[in-house]
């Protein structure tokens, strides 16, 4: 259920998305509860206080948001909000989608059938050659190749797919070229393909940005191919996200003597399709059951529960006590408290805004460092 | 149901096994029909003639068989017949088992839990290193490593497992050292492990001996690990036989850029367990459902059907017409003819003895070259 945003609504949308402690899940829940970003913004200080936050929540000023919009416009980038018609369908199908996406280049590529090709930064020459060839074959077969512009496999995949229009998803802003040796590749993708990011255009990538970047890589794609990956590497996280998002996962096998094949061999053992070339990917796409339906339209808003009373406070304390640094399912908290899901969701959003909890996609909740600090 | 053979029975057993056109299936069927090799031998000329054979069937003389027994005894090898108590249980569980086995070395190893490690003759250094290490780890874990003494992976597997007692299965006789550079390895296996073969001790291997050799490699083993194999290679046949025999199949993955990984990656795609080391093999053995029960004891014999009458001749002609160079299931012939399975089996044995048909394990029948020649 897409809608058209006025300039003011767009400003409020982005402002809410850029507010401290507001991730995609919290954004989504606030929108479901308040209907409009402006109403959510107005309620934020109160919600954070209820969650236990003493100092004020850092909400960017309208001026800061206008500066972000101006910076994007200056470099020719476009902001696409999750509720808008041209937001990529594959991303809109996520639960929840990223609230916003900046796109530099040809955003129409984002609605084509896409395949992610990702892998190790420290990749073997053979692995890079394979990634380059596979990406070219996928481009030839009409697929858009998505990757993360990192060193190694990512860069090789973009290079192979360059003539067909390839999509680079960055952790930093669309203008944040990293690694430096990919400056030229970045420029060519911005011209013939598309560079996208959830971050502000001039934002410098930090480690914490990469989980959200990885979620967009898999989210834009019907299939994710992992080419080389050591055990416990970032590409395996992208593969896991892809599986959670209902996308196909493929992995390229390698010798057990090569540590860069450990991760991909593990994926195959866990059920990923074995990928030796483009035919395997096309076969997986044939079997692809389709994007999930977008889980909701952003209306109508549920009533504010007015939970400033002692019972609501007691519930927040109980929910907080149930959290731990190990992710726990929201449903489990609902069961443990014995109150309804809406009341628990409200308490979790407040704890998230207060910096006590982090709400993860897939209905998981994890305690933050602040939680442990008292 | 094992039995003890007198010297005369043993002689007849081996003589029937060495008769022209008598493979394991035909041997098994003749034994089921006549109860005793001596009775089957007496009936052979008649059966072959019924199958359409003009010239006499080549049955070795008693002298020739005594010479084989003497040659084996001279080199310290032991003949074990399929009906004897010390015939390896894993082989006895095959349908049908090889009629005889010559063993040089320590035949008691043949009844230990065993894992075959096989692969390409033209193997990479890395593949050989992996095979050597895996075989040593399997030996350490108490498994007997079985392989085919070929160049490449087979040789490396034997080397790795040598300190633990390893079993080499040859296409030629147990004294047929091939390749020449494995002379020392052969000698050491004969001393500390076991060299086995279905062929006569001094027989020189021919291409046609290797399918039966491969069937024994998988037949002796609870699991078969294929280390490197090009598409359509012999190791893949061993893997297929293992699957048909209800044994576990594992394959070591490799880069799609390495043609020696094509076969193993294909196996994984088809459902073989991915093998990166000894833990994967031990896990597969944990899941092993056990050897199948030996399908029969060699008694009591069914009555001779006396099929020299015109109806029996017409049936043989019909069965012969149903054969083709593509294997066909015996059950399908039974269905197509509309007569009972015993009559069809009798006709097939006669056609096999006449050289018109070859009876394959698993109930398959294939026409031979003689079949096409008229």
What's a quick, concise take on this entry?
The first copy, chain A, has 374 residues and is α/β, with parallel strands linked by helices. In chain A, 44% of the residues lie in helices and 13% in strands. The longest helix of chain A is centred in the middle third of the chain and has 16 residues, at 125-140.
Number of strands of chain A: 12
Sheet with most strands of chain A: 9 strands, mixed
Oligomer: homodimer
Approximately how much helix is present in the residues of chain A?
Answer: 40-55%
Q: How much of the residues of chain A is beta strand, in percent? A: 5-15%
**Biggest protein-protein interface?**
A-B, 20 and 21 residues
Gross geometry of chain A? globular
Strand order of the largest sheet of chain A: 1-2-6-5-4-3-7-8-9
What integer value in Å does the Rg of chain A equal?
21 Å
**How far is the N terminus from the C terminus of chain A?**
43 Å
SS-based class of chain A = alpha/beta
Mean pLDDT of chain A: 91
Query: What is the succession of H and E elements of chain A?
Result: HHHHEHEEHEHEHEHEHEHEHHEHHEEH
The number of helices of chain A is 16
| Low-confidence runs of at least 5 consecutive residues of chain A | 297-303
């Amino acid at each position: 259920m897409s809608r058209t945003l006025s300039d003011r609504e767009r400003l409020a949308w982005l402002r809410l998305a850029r507010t401290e402690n507001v991730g995609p899940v919290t954004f989504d829940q606030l929108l479901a509860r308040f209907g409009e970003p402006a109403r959510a913004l107005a309620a934020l200080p109160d919600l954070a206080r209820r969650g236990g936050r003493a100092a004020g929540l850092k909400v960017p000023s309208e001026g800061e948001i206008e500066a972000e919009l101006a910076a994007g416009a200056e470099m020719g980038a476009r902001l696409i909000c999750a509720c808008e018609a041209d937001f990529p369908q594959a991303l809109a199908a996520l639960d929840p989608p990223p609230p916003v996406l900046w796109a530099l280049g040809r955003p129409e590529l984002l609605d084509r059938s896409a395949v992610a090709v990702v892998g190790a930064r420290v990749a073997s020459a053979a692995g890079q050659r394979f990634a380059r060839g596979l990406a070219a074959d996928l481009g030839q077969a009409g697929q858009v190749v998505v990757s993360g512009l990192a060193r190694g496999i990512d860069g090789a995949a973009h290079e192979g797919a360059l003539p067909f229009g390839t999509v680079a998803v960055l952790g930093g802003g669309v203008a944040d070229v990293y690694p430096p040796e990919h400056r030229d590749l970045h420029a060519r993708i911005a011209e013939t393909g598309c560079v996208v990011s959830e971050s502000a255009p001039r934002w410098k990538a930090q480690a914490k940005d990469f989980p959200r970047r990885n979620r967009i890589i898999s989210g834009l794609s019907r299939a994710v191919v992992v080419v080389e990956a050591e055990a416990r590497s970032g590409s395996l996280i992208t593969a896991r996200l892809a599986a959670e998002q209902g996308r196909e996962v493929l992995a390229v096998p390698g010798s057990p003597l090569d540590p860069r094949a450990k991760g991909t061999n593990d994926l195959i053992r866990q059920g990923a399709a074995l990928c030796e070339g483009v035919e395997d990917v096309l076969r997986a796409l044939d079997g692809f059951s389709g994007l999930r339906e977008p889980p909701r339209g952003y209306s109508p808003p549920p009533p504010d529960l007015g939970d400033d009373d002692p019972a609501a406070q007691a519930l927040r304390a109980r929910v907080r006590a149930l959290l731990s640094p190990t992710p726990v399912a929201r449903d489990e908290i609902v069961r443990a408290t014995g109150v309804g899901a809406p009341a628990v969701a409200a308490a979790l959003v407040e704890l998230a805004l207060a910096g006590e909890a982090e709400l993860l996609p897939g209905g998981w909740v994890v305690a933050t460092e602040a939680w442990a600090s008292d």
